[in-house]
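Supplementary Methods. Inverse-folding protocol.

Structures were first reduced to a discrete structure-token string of length 663. This string, shown here, constituted the complete conditioning input.
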């Protein structure tokens, strides 16, 4: 019935001339430009995405050394507003300094810049491409620390019926269902995901009181993807995504709800692409205040409605110019949003928000001759921040306590990148790159003050854009298709970095404000390796980053300190085995070094080793048994330490057992 309903759409949308010759749809964008050979790239293939111990993208990305979220908690227990991504120890304040894209569409939250990780089920993806460093390039503003490109799975990977059902610790369920249909020359994929669990108690055992309890979660998403030939050499890709995310943070008055809806359409030709998209988000976020004995809890504030929208477009052409590969294009993105909340023990109401817009153009060229590849390019962006406002009311009387309209601002940012790669011998490559990038402050950073427990952070409507400059050099050796080792040295400097600067600190908590510090510098080394040994494979990586804050004036106390939430060392290694009958097993060891909770480097979060494992055993042509273990040694992984010294942990040992269906 479904096939009969949708097939006429493809027949009408595809001209008759397009059905004469063989047409193969891919669902992909334009191929990687030759110049990308000069940059530090890590690929996570479909086998890694679907075979890891966790079915959560934020956890899988932790296999990339140097990748980190603002906090160590995953998307089941963390506050989603703390889940921005960064690379190379550039720090952050929950907004992403790495640009996350799904099939060309930026994915950061329009209001806050964080990422709704439960929306991106790895089973829908074919590949994740992580570019560490690299500036903005052709992908648009925001790629300060790097770019994380999510690519939808190929039609061949999603064809037929698929289903997963796993049951885990603390009454947890992870379910997935997918349907992939070839319709004429096109393809349709529908998929749904649902997960829920009773959760664990975030506060460590020795500090718990009467108010502490487990942190349940319930999350689901539905995605639809249509791919069809629009003409003989033009492919139409239409994507839709709906998701719901509900969590609690381990006490009364700490529940959080996120709703999201995305839609995009992309036309891809032989040498050009055009994309339009729209995004809608809404957040409910309640914050609790707990007394020193953890015997009583009250609502500190309540973001009862945070609507935001994002929309944009992007176009690119690659004209044929002989041996030179050229990319020319532009992008536009507009976001708007507002927080509506009640705070100060329910006595005040706040409305704060505004809008921001960027419009940019870029041009890049790559020349490949013999063993040498040279690439370079630049982009020019115009930005605008407008309609910013902060209004506060007395709830009881409706009287206006604060009514501030912030002046509109705008400016221009010029950035670029250049690189070179040289094949020294069979399998051995040397490369180097230099780059500039920038990021506009989010509406959340500009306009919304907030409180976590007894710690308060003030907004700053005068924040300047962050600007990045960096260089890197590396060697890569590939003795075979299944083996490689790469080493990269890097030096990055983030100017006007936005940090939560401590203004005062006492037994009742801290008062911070978002401010631009002079710079955050980070220098280090990254090592990635993979070794194929028949049915065994070993892969791993190590990152070392020496990061320091350079600050003056009010932030002078931070000068020479390490940015908050940035470890010096991170390491990940995986041993995997696969049999001829497609039975599989893997074990992953991860290590994250110690990092400071606060900008003053007074609250040290200890290092965090952990071990994950996964195994699968086919029992028929279509059924496979699966077993998984997250943090199998039940290591205490500290996720945060509050100003009052309360320690919160990340996910404890979690065991899963289930079945996978593929037909």
């Amino acid at each position: 019935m479904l096939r009969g309903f949708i097939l006429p759409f493809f027949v009408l949308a595809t001209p008759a001339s397009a059905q004469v010759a063989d047409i193969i749809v891919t669902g992909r964008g334009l191929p990687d430009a030759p110049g990308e050979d000069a940059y530090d790239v890590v690929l996570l293939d479909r086998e890694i995405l679907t075979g890891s111990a966790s079915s959560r993208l934020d956890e899988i990305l932790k296999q990339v050394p140097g990748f980190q979220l603002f906090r160590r908690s995953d998307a089941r227990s963390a506050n989603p507003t703390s889940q921005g991504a960064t690379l190379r120890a550039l720090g952050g304040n929950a907004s992403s300094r790495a640009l996350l894209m799904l099939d060309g569409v930026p994915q950061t939250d329009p209001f806050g810049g964080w990422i709704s990780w439960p929306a991106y089920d790895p089973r829908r993806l074919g590949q994740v491409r992580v570019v560490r460093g690299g500036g903005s390039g052709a992908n648009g503003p925001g790629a300060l620390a790097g770019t994380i490109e999510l690519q939808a799975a190929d039609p061949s990977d999603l064809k037929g019926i698929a289903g997963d059902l796993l049951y885990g610790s603390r009454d947890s369920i992870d379910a997935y269902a997918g349907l992939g249909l070839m319709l004429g020359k096109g393809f349709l994929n529908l998929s749904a995901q649902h997960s829920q669990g009773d959760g664990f108690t975030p506060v460590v055992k020795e500090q718990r009181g009467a108010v502490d309890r487990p942190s349940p979660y319930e999350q689901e998403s539905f995605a639809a993807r249509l791919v069809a030939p629009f003409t003989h050499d033009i492919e139409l890709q239409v994507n839709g995504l709906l998701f719901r995310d509900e969590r609690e943070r381990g006490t009364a008055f700490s529940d959080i709800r996120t709703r999201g809806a995305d839609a995009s359409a992309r036309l891809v030709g032989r040498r050009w692409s055009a994309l339009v998209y729209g995004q809608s988000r809404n957040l409910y976020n309640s914050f609790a205040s707990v007394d020193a004995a953890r015997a009583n809890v009250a609502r500190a504030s309540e973001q009862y409605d945070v609507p935001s929208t994002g929309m944009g477009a992007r176009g690119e052409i690659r004209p044929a110019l002989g041996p030179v590969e050229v990319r020319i294009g532009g992008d536009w993105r507009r976001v708007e949003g507002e927080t509506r909340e009640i705070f100060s023990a329910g006595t005040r109401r706040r409305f704060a928000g505004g809008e921001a817009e960027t419009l940019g153009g870029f041009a890049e060229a790559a020349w490949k001759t013999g063993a040498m590849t040279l690439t370079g390019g630049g982009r020019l962006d115009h930005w605008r921040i407008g309609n910013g406002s902060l209004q506060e009311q007395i709830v009881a009387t409706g009287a206006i306590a604060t009514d501030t309209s912030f002046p509109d601002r705008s400016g221009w940012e010029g950035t670029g990148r250049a690189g070179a790669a040289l094949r020294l011998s069979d399998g051995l490559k040397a490369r180097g790159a230099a780059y500039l990038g920038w990021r506009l402050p989010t509406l959340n950073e500009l306009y919304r003050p907030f409180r976590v427990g007894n710690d308060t952070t003030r907004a700053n409507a005068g924040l300047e854009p962050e600007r990045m400059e960096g260089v890197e050099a590396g060697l890569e050796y590939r003795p075979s298709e299944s083996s490689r080792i790469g080493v990269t040295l890097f030096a990055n400097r983030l100017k006007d970095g936005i940090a939560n600067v401590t203004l005062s600190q006492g037994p009742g908590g801290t008062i911070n404000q978002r401010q631009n510090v002079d710079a955050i510098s980070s220098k280090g080394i990254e090592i990635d390796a993979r070794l194929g040994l028949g049915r065994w494979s070993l892969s791993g990586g190590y990152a070392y980053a020496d990061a320091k804050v350079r600050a003056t004036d009010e932030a002078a106390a931070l000068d020479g300190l390490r940015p908050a939430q940035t470890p010096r060392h991170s390491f990940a290694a995986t041993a995997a085995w696969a049999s001829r009958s497609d039975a599989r097993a893997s074990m992953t060891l991860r290590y994250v070094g110690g990092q400071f909770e606060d900008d003053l480097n007074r609250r040290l979060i200890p290092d965090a080793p952990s071990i994950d494992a996964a195994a699968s055993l086919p029992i028929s042509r279509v059924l496979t048994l699966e077993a998984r273990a997250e943090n199998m040694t039940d290591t205490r992984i500290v996720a945060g330490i509050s100003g009052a010294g309360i320690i919160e942990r990340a996910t404890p040992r979690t065991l899963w057992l289930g079945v996978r269906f593929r037909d």
